[in-house]
Fold this sequence. Notes:
Blueprint: H1 26-54, E1 57-58, E2 66-67, H2 71-77, H3 80-112, H4 117-128, H5 135-145, H6 151-158, H7 175-180, H8 189-200, H9 204-212, H10 217-228, H11 230-246, H12 249-255, H13 267-276, H14 281-305
Antiparallel strand pairs: 1-2
Amino acid sequence: MNASTIIPSGPRPARRSNRPPGSPPLVLIYGLLALPLLFLLVFNYVPAASALYHAFTEWDVGAESRWIGLGNFKALSVDPVFRQSLWNLFRLGCFVLIVNLSVPFLVAEMIFHLRSERARYACRVALVLPMVVPGVVVFMIWKYIYSDAGLVTEGLLALGLRDWVYGWLSHPKTALWAVAFVGFPFAHGVHALIYYAGLANISPDILEAAEVDGLGPIGRIVRIHVPLILQQAKLLLIITVIGVVNGFEAILILTEDGGPGYETLVPGLYMYQNGFTYQRMGYACAIGLLMLMFLLAFTISLNRLLKTERFEPGRRGT
């Protein structure tokens, strides 16, 4: 018999565990992990699956749901109120995208160009402080600002511009833009800090090389800063679009029903009204599904169109 085939006698050595001594048992670890996963499944994925199914049903509150296939979507395609909400969302979204992507970038650039590190830190703290105020409180303050006794009306009257005074949230010509200007001057703290983090991550060698090449401040911003923070800009673009499409809290608080008429109605608020005011849950689920499909298509398309690579010295980034 070959020596290499001899089986050693005696007990086999125990397998060494990589777990540190004193660590909790695996059963406890997996049990603790299973609990949040269970809550996530019950309170997130099950309702989402239910909404997906009921989007194809006629389901009124208190009644049995009835499968109607694409009936809700056919009704939406000829619903003039839904069309008006889409048009309002388009106008509101264009304005919000422009100001949310441009103003925070300018704020981040101003902070980045401060020479004092203490001043930069103070500015970052000043941007974060307003975030502790609940959004509902902010909307209530703006509702008072737009009221007949608010700052806008009183300021115009003090300047003798009585003809410029409107019912800012009740006039069809001003209601949507009054909602759009909530949050002025649009220096959103999170957006500015994300831009600032991208600027702070730029290698000093790149900035010094640009200065040696004779690029001025505007040239550095256009040819160095902007290409190297495209990843941050893409993130903010996705976050902003999701917030605009899904958000309706400001309109609900400021106008209550998307008025005057349907001038400030958006699909999110129309979905809320159908579900909890008109008790048409199936119709509301169909609106929510359309919003979900749009956001998925937008996010996937944007990720494919705006592909960015990490910049490395000696390599051109896209």
